[in-house]
Amino acid sequence: MTSAALSRRDWSPFTRYRRSLWLLTTRDLKVRYSTSFLGYFWSILDPLAMSAIYWFVFTQVFQRTVGAEPYIVFLLTALLPWMWFNGAITDATRAFTKEAKLIRSTTIPRTIWVARLVLSKGIEFVLSIPVVIAFAIATTWTANPAHFHVEALWSLLAVVLQAILTVGIGLIVAPLVVFFRDLERAVKLVLRFLFYASPIIYGLKDLEAIGLEFWGSLNPLAGIFTLYRAAFFPEQLDWFAVAVSAGMSVLAFVIGLAVYQRTIRTVLKEI
Fold first, then answer.
1. Distance (Å, rounded) from C-alpha 36 to C-alpha 94?
2. Among 64, 238, 252, 265, which residue is least crowded by beta carbons within 10 Å?
3. What sign for the dihedral angle of Cα 54, 205, 125, 264?
4. Residue 246 in contact with residue 168, Cβ under 8 Å?
5. Is 103 in contact with 265 (CB distance < 8 Å)?
6. What is the per-residue pLDDT for 173?
7. Lowest-pLDDT range, 41-50, 70-79, 102-111, 223-232?
């Protein structure tokens, strides 16, 4: 037996989990882009296209009364993290059914099949951040330039909270879809509704005028998005919403682990 094999046997469970997670994540990214001519650019073309559409509709077609200037930067600071959340949850509906044979044959905790989706989508999100910076720089020569603020450091907290929230929801959805296959379509409908119920094309502060700011703050994504937006729009930061997001993220994670632990044995039999 080689020294490398012996060293692997000495790895702690956490080390084995971490290394397996990274291996599966990098495999996902390589498979996703190896046969694509544009590769990485596909991860930013979708949010760019959506941002362009909403920017055109709300600045050129209709008289916009929500958001802040420059609106394209305002959109991207929430739309890019939304793409991370939406993509990870959508893929989580197939986490235990897409590679059933491989999942049954592994001995590592099956939570890794959800965690790898969140991590791979998170990496794509991080790689798309230069797009926001590029647009912010491009607005320097406009009437309403974007200004970078020290509150950008709160984006690190946003990433942590979003990862916890997404993993938690993923651990709820992934096993339940095995038993209720219609849940996959239901999740897509809920995500479509959640997009418009989240402060993406508008800000949380815009809900104050219609008396819905408190209810909007109960959306677990609302506080997270205000943390991201604080980099360019510090006035959008809402600490009550952030506290709600933190509490609901931890709660979702705890519930997700509980659902996973209670269902994983039956899931392995079903798949």
1. 22
2. 265
3. negative
4. no
5. no
6. 96
7. 41-50
DSSP the chain: --HHHHHHHT--HHHHHHHHHHHHHHHHHHHHHHT-SSGGGHHHHHHHHHHHHHHHIIIIIS---SS-SSHHHHHHHHHHHHHHHHHHHHHHTTTTTTTHHHHHH--S-TTHHHHHHHHHHHHHHHHHHHHHHHHHHHGGGSSS-----GGGGHHHHHHHHHHHHHHHHHHHHHHHHHH-TTHHHHHHHHHHHHHHHSSSSS-GGGGGGGT-HHHHHTSHHHHHHHHHHTTT-GGG--HHHHHHHHHHHHHHHHHHHHHHHHHHHHHHHH-
Which sign, positive or negative, has the C-alpha torsion 75, 156, 187, 216? negative
pTM of the full structure: 0.89
Contact by Cβ (8 Å): 236, 68:
yes
Pair 101, 108: CB distance under 8 Å? no
Q: Dihedral (C-alpha) 126, 132, 136, 138: value to the nearest 10 degrees?
A: 120
CB atoms within 10 A of CB 1: 6
Contact 241, 226 (CB under 8 A): yes
Cα–Cα distance for residue pair 185/41, rounded to 1 Å: 28
Backbone phi, then psi, for 15, in 5-degree steps? -65, -45
Query: Tokens in use for 264?
Result: 């994983």
Confidence of residue 4 (pLDDT cuts 50, 70, 90): very low
